[in-house]
Write a structure and sequence with these properties.
The protein is α+β, with helices and mostly antiparallel strands and 179 residues long. Helices cover 45% and strands 26% of the residues.
Amino acid sequence: MLWLRKGYFLIVLLLAACGFRPLYVGQSTQDSISGKQLTQEMASIFIDTIPDRLGQILHQSLSDRLTPQGETKDPRYRLSVRLSEAVLSQQGVRQDNLATRYMMTFTAYYTLYTYPENRKILSDSTIGRSSYDVQLSPYATDVAEEMAKERIMKILGNDIALRLAAFLKSYNVSEKLKQ
């Protein structure tokens, strides 16, 4: 147990030495953005409509993370998201060559624009994966597939929100340095 405590202590020292700082915490200086400012900056993102039912789920996940107080009245940014088609791959295969488990993958392509100038400032993509079992009942398999899709949309929403937060934190610092 003593070696475990020393290991944690070593990790903490290494993180402190590399300049690691939590995303939403920090001292507010003239050239930085603190947690409260970052939260306000993220809340100023308008999220475009994403088509289809899965797009609605992804939109809701993004709204929960970016604008928890409701849609912004004075947007500074506009987020556009496009979803790929689902890619299914077999994970478990029985001896009679029937799949017993599937892995589902979606890719979300997102672009962040300034508003109202409509200048592209970030364009990226992220991948979400989840798997589900094939059941004896077709209904149970359909429900498992739908739940996997919903899980993926929540994963994608969380990942996009985290990436936007990291980008906005560095973007605002670089914008202040330009001025």
